[in-house]
Amino acid sequence: MPAVVTENLTKIYGAADASVTALDHVSLAVEPGEFVAVMGPSGCGKSTLLHLIGGLDRPTAGRVLLDGHDLSTLDDEAMSVLRRRNIGFVFQFYNLIPVLNAQENAALPLLLDGIPAERARSAATQWLERFELGGRQLHRPDQLSGGQQQRVAIARALVAEPTLILADEPTGNLDSQAADQIAALLGRVSREWGRTVLIVTHDPRIAAQADRIVFLKDGHVVDQTILERRDEGNIEIVADAMKRLTT
Q1: Pick from 206, 194, 208: which is nearest to 236 by CA?
Q2: Which residues pair with 217 in a beta bridge?
Q3: pLDDT of 205 strictly over 90
């Protein structure tokens, strides 16, 4: 069973003459453990697709299935529980809480789900150590570099052991060195820890880590590219595909 299925997914904002179609009958399947990058020009519907898959917004038409669960059948409370336990979110600007240290930020999803504090801190520590942040656990976000803050955010996304990681431009606020590190880390999240990873990105370095790239344009899937390996050798392939799409 695919981890994610979208069936004729459509999202229209506004009404009548003021309406804008962000997504237009997008059908897509992502297999368990697959790393898929979604690319395309600005305004093509990439973030809208991610928000609909993550249950952060509701489609105008079509549906999303996560591990066989039809999101359209879930009320707000059930949707919140599914997001908290089955999906990890990673955003461009980290969204860490400034007054909490790295361990407390990473543990937050478990604490909000009623997990005892000791267990939550232990799980957070385990992920931070995997990301080479064991010595930074007690540092607040303003004491960490941008790349370190994003690693804390990824640890937070993984701490509840979700099956799906959704990332929206996770390297968009980083320098090239930190972006390369985050790209490689997301590759490991899929390859070593078996998570399904779906990212929206303009960055060929992240897309080069993916198994497959889905290209959107004007709300439609217009092309897909399967990458035979996950490494920097794919960057030129990705860049050429993006050039064809935008010309």
Answers
A1: 208
A2: 220
A3: no
Which amino acid, residue 189? Answer: V
CA-only gyration radius of the chain, Å: 18
Domain that holds residue 189: 4-246
Burial, 23: exposed, middle or buried (Cβ in 10 Å; 0-12, 13-18, 19+)? buried
Nearest partner of 54 among 89, 19, 12, judged by Cα? 89
Indicate the pTM of the whole model.
0.92
pLDDT tens-digit map of 59-117: 999 999 999 889 999 999 999 999 999 999 999 889 999 999 999 999 999 999 999 99
pLDDT tens per residue, range 161-192: 999 999 999 998 899 899 989 989 999 999 99
Residues contacting residue 122 through CB under 8 Å, at least 6 positions apart: none
Q: How many domains does the chain have?
A: 1
